[in-house]
Amino acid sequence: MRQKRAKAYKKQMNIYLHTFKFREPFQTLVDDEIVLQCHKGQFDITKGLNRTIQAEAKPMITQCCMQALYLTNNQPAIELAKTFERRRCNHNIKAPETPTDCIRSVVDVNGQNKHRYIVATQSVELRRKLQVVPGVPLVFMNRSVMVMEPASDATKKGAELSENTKLQAGLNDAKVGYLNKEEVQEDEDGKKKKRKGLSEPNPLSVKKKKKEDKPKSSTEAQQVQKKRVRHHKSRSRKEGEETTLERTDETLKTTEEVTQKQTKENDSRAQAEELV
Known about the structure:
By secondary structure, this protein is an alpha/beta fold. The protein is built from ten helices and eight strands. Strands 3-2-1-6-7-8 form a six-stranded mixed β-sheet. A two-stranded antiparallel ribbon has the order 4-5. The longest helix has 58 residues, at 218-275. The chain is elongated, with a radius of gyration of 52 Å.
């Protein structure tokens, strides 16, 4: 599918979605002629519908269209149609309606596409009759390409009418265009209304403030004093340990001197005794 045509189909389907409340999967009524045409050209009708409407399609066929296919004795086309969901048309099977009249009676309910059907048909007469009904997407085969018809005049008028009603409903609403009593009183008093939105700058673009030294409280000061006292105690302990070590060294020196004197005295006595 060409890009230009795809954009046009997308825009057209948005009208059916938003204005006429279509929903996925889109219910698509197919007639006997388009089934025969797709089978003849070996065209996958389900994939073609999905590609054309650019969404999921749900192919459906009526009993009258099935009876028209049975008369052709084209068994492959009949088997293909049997894979589609059957749509009840409430017509007599023994005396079925023509596919054109059957599909028109199912789609056109009091001049409206009540059940929101997409119609895929090769019948020019059926497409011409359904163009009068607003909100009916029409799909057909143009040789080997599946094509969607442009929106009909009835569809365009229906879309414009729905938009105008929405606008008029907004203008005619009593709440729109009038202030509440509280707002009127505030205006009379001369109070300014608060503006909505962010008043502060972006926190990511603002530099972080440097932490200032706060004055310490009494409890924190006491804790600091306690820590200092403990620090003095540790120093005094170190000094006491050093003094004890010095004292031990002095005692050791004195003991060595005493022992040396005693040994000298003993030696001198021994020499004197030998002389005697």
